[in-house]
């Protein structure tokens, strides 16, 4: 008896609901009388090429200006292109894909690790549009991989058109079209970013403390300036009072014309505690035709002024306080 081919040798695992069992796929040739390992390899290779076509179309849609051919077996993408796609494209030995989840059981990112049943479910989900997008954020700074999923509930219809009640984790982003397969890159926070944020927070804390200290210093300076201003106003009032008293004394001397007006002028001045200083030289009256001489009497307790204006002469005796006496001694 001659060797007969296995009737099931010409069939491969269907890649979409439209394919019927027994249909030979043009992408893969199955050898005559294949072994179980060869049959498994052929089915996996056929489905791998189907997924390759889907992902290639996704790349063409993402980069329409690239000159890519579907026959290309090595597609190199720059790091910025990989971040834009959301997954790393690697043809040799399989594909580095986003992480797929079907019914919470399929958790792998490498096609070569999928079983035939997983291949069929994955391709059927892609073709029917139930698996919208998968997300596998990558921390490109510290080379760590983080998975982030957005779970929605959907059902996959079997080839008979009836709902099989299976749940699929579907991943999609806001504002994305509901047609076709999309792979979305989600932003992730790297450890370098966290360290930078901590340094910025510490710097901000130091700046806030420095500003608070400067505000306290400014407050003290403002209070000191206020006190100095009040003291200056008191001195201005005292000087103005002294000037008015001296002018009154001079006017009294000019009006009386007496040579013995010491008591009267002493009463007019009222300077029992007049502060004696080097400014007591009547500079304000330098424009008047007045000559003055001064001398200390009674152990520097009295100041005797001799005034002369034209033919009029007068003398004034002023009692000095304790402070004025000490200042007079230092100026003597």
Detailed description of the structure:
The protein is α+β, with helices and mostly antiparallel strands. It folds into 2 domains: 8-193, no CATH class; 242-332, no CATH class. It is 39% helix and 13% strand. The chain has 6 helices and 9 strands, in the order H-H-E-E-H-E-E-E-E-H-H-E-E-E-H. It has helices spanning 36-62, 79-85, 116-128, 191-256, 262-269, 322-331, and strands spanning 96-100, 108-110, 138-139, 144-145, 155-157, 163-167, 291-297, 302-309, 312-319. It has a 3-stranded antiparallel sheet. It has a two-stranded antiparallel sheet with strand order 1-2. Strand 7 (291-297) and strand 8 (302-309) form a beta hairpin. Helix 1 (36-62) runs parallel beside helix 3. The longest helix has 66 residues, at 191-256. The termini are far apart. Residues 1-26 have a biased composition (Polar residues). Residues 159-172 have a biased composition (Basic and acidic residues).
Helix content: 25-40%
The strands making up the biggest β-sheet line up spatially as 7-8-9
Overall, the morphology is rod-shaped
Estimate the strand proportion.
5-15%
The tally of helices reads 6
Number-wise, the strands total 9
What pattern of helices and strands is seen along the backbone? HHEEHEEEEHHEEEH
Uncertain stretches? 1-28, 88-113, 131-188, 258-282, 284-288, 322-328
Mean pLDDT: 56
**What integer value in Å does the Rg equal?**
53 Å
Beginning-to-end CA distance, first to last residue: 151 Å
Number of domains: 2
Biggest pleated sheet = 3 strands, antiparallel
Helix vs. strand class: alpha+beta
Keywords: Coiled coil
């Amino acid at each position: 008896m001659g060797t007969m081919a296995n009737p099931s040798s010409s069939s491969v695992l269907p890649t979409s609901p439209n394919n019927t069992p027994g249909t030979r796929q043009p992408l893969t040739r199955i050898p005559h009388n294949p072994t179980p390992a060869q049959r498994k390899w052929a089915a996996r290779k056929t489905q791998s090429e189907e997924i390759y076509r889907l992902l290639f179309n996704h790349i063409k849609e993402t980069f329409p200006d690239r000159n890519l051919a579907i026959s290309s077996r090595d597609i190199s993408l720059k790091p910025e292109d990989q971040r834009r796609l959301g997954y790393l494209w690697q043809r040799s030995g399989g594909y580095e894909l986003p992480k797929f989840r079907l019914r919470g059981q399929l958790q792998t990112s490498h096609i070569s690790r999928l079983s035939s049943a997983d291949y069929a479910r994955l391709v059927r989900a892609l073709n029917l549009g139930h698996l919208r997008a998968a997300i596998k954020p990558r921390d490109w700074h510290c080379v760590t991989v983080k998975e982030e999923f957005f779970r929605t509930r959907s059902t996959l219809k079997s080839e008979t058109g009836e709902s099989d009640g299976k749940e699929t984790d579907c991943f999609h982003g806001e504002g994305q079209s509901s047609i076709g397969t999309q792979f979305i890159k989600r932003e992730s926070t790297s450890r370098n970013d966290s360290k930078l944020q901590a340094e910025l927070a510490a710097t901000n804390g130091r700046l806030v403390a420095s500003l608070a200290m400067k505000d306290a210093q400014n407050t003290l300076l403002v209070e000191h300036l206020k006190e100095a201003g009040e003291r200056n106003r008191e001195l201005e009032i005292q000087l103005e009072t002294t000037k008015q008293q001296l002018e009154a004394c001079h006017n009294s001397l000019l009006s009386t014309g007496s040579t013995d007006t010491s008591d009267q002028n002493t009463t007019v001045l009222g300077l029992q505690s007049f502060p004696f200083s080097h400014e007591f030289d009547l500079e304000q009256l330098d424009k008047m035709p007045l000559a003055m001489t001064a001398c200390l009497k009674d152990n520097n307790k009295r100041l005797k002024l001799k005034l002369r204006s034209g033919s009029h002469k007068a003398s004034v005796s002023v009692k000095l306080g304790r402070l004025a006496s000490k200042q007079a001694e230092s100026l003597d």
